[in-house]
# Entry
Amino acid sequence: MATSKHRGGEKQGPAPASLSAEYVEANPRSHAMYDRQRQNVPLGVTHSTRLFDPFPLFIAACRGSHKWDVDGHEYVDYWLGHGSFLLGHAHPAVGEAIAAQLSDGLHAGGETELGMLWAEAICDLVPSAEAVRFTSSGGEATELALRVARAYTGRTKAIKFRHNFHGWHDAVAIGVTQPWDLPMAAGITDGALADTVVLPANDIGAVRAALQASDDVAAVILEPGGGFSDTVPTDLGYLAELREVTRQAGVVLIFDEVVTGFRYAVGGVQEYTGVIPDLTTLGKVVGGGLPAGALAGRAGVMEMLGSTGDPDRDRRERIPHYGTWNAMPIVAAAGVAALGLIANGDPTRIANERAAQLRDGLNEVFAAGGLPAVAYGRSSIWKTYLGERPKLLDGDLSEAAADGERLAVGWGDLGDPLRRALLLEGVDVMRSQGFTSAVHTEAEITATVEAFAGAIERLRAEGLLRA
Ligand code: PMP
# Structure
């Protein structure tokens, strides 16, 4: 970070009039690439979360905890491939495993030893995983999970929770942001959503009532750490109740651990809490940084991906599972290498320690500056929120729905300016939040806390925050 060209103390000449002007001035190549990409790519971005005002940075390289943009600025990175790089970018051992497979072909069109080892690693590390199938993304894994739950129970409805994101496919494309009854995008039919029931998070009474009202619920799916990658935290005591209630109703409980897997503990939230779901979806970290997802779970439920031996019965009661890229060896190589490194628990522990240090440091900065803001989060996932501390963060569920709404807003309209200011301070975050990796150093965390202090000063200087 010290080499960043545009850290506060290194600026020369008169300061540009605003954060935006400074950002534009500092990033001419990103600006040009964005204008060019916009000619061919709607909005000029390849993922809606990457949309950024006035334009996103174009990244030239990522290594360890750092990334560099095409204008030569260096950043400490907390975006980390949307949370995929628990081991940091371009980990040498993962890179070597990928390189070793390159010359033996990318796709076997058959089974491979690497795929076998990858499945074994997941079944060793994830408590609920007695069997596993691979997909190419986390979203595909949640789609498959719902199908498996329906086949297993012979029921149709799936309960999901407000603010919980499970990918962009139709059945879960509702209840992610307000208004709760409106799909999160155009192009999604009422029919596709007819069997999805959206309930408030952290409300066991609402789940009980829904299960009493209908005997046609196949699944309850949730981000076990909380909606939006833990932005709206789940009360962990509630998880045990949810397990009990779903067990009693014969409903398949699905933990979407695409984000929390390998972070809360090597075995995810389920290892951390001891609450074991029937099915688990994985993504991000599980593929060592290449595109991957996995559905794992109890053998009896995963049997739906098997055969009864009777073709007619199979057609009605079992699920053939396709996907050109499932467990392709180049991805399996990365996954096996990454999970091999993660297995001893050190990367998870170190990343968690760094995030705790960051949260503590940020809370000190907020307090020292008299800013009503909170740094919170669990494991190596960290969040910040601008406003008085919501009770939900201390396990008080008396205003859980309202607190969830507030937390989901984060920094609101100041989210983009905050990120702009942090980029100018040499730090890249996902607006007001991010992840830590096992290769972030204590010194980098300290520097990041200072960068936040600098960013807050910039926001104040621009009149965006009260002095
Ligand atoms: N589940 C959760 C909890 C996620 O956060 C995401 C993506 N951020 C997904 C599923 C979808 O994963 P993917 O982007 O790999 O499809």
